Fold this protein.
Amino acid sequence: MTEQELDPVLLVAALRVLADYTRECYNAAKVDQAARMHRGDRLTARSPLEGGRKIAALSVTDPKPVTQIRDRAAFTAWVKKNYPDAVKRTRTISGSEDEVVKVLFAHAPHLLRREVAVDPEFEREIKQASAGLGAPLGPNGETDLPGVVVEAPDPQVRCTVEDDALAEVIHLFRVGRLSLDSFQPPELPGGAA
């Protein structure tokens, strides 16, 4: 190997270090950009060189509210009390699979346990109605559904890169329009300069 050739082990290690570093910078830049954008915004990143080739599109998601059952026991107790027809009684296997195979259900009732669960269709209807209102909502307009929360996820900045963007970005580095200093935080990790 000549001095001009890069040790392949060093190449892999250096690329990994750079990948980790640029991923951190990318995530920090997205957070910074998110503070400047609003839900549903879409911006285009273009090359500063003549022709202004499109490099990527940045967009901010506009997520819809999502209903979750955070306290399954409280929600199930409420449904059981107020909508008993929406409760399904099931049996689950509490013994080992080997035991069940050996003795089968008919010969080993100790392997069965009674459980109460809300009908999945009833739960789906509550989630759908609650998401539409933006707050817990029962079939008869109840709003005090225990264990149910409605939250809109935080918007996220997305970056959709053009297929041919790599060549343009590499060119921007080669002509000095981009450098590692372009996205370097005030101080490199470990105090390096």
User: Anything to note?
Assistant: Residues 8-62+154-191 form one domain. The first strand starts at residue 42 and ends at 46. The first helix runs from residue 8 to 34. The chain has two domains: 8-62+154-191, 66-151.
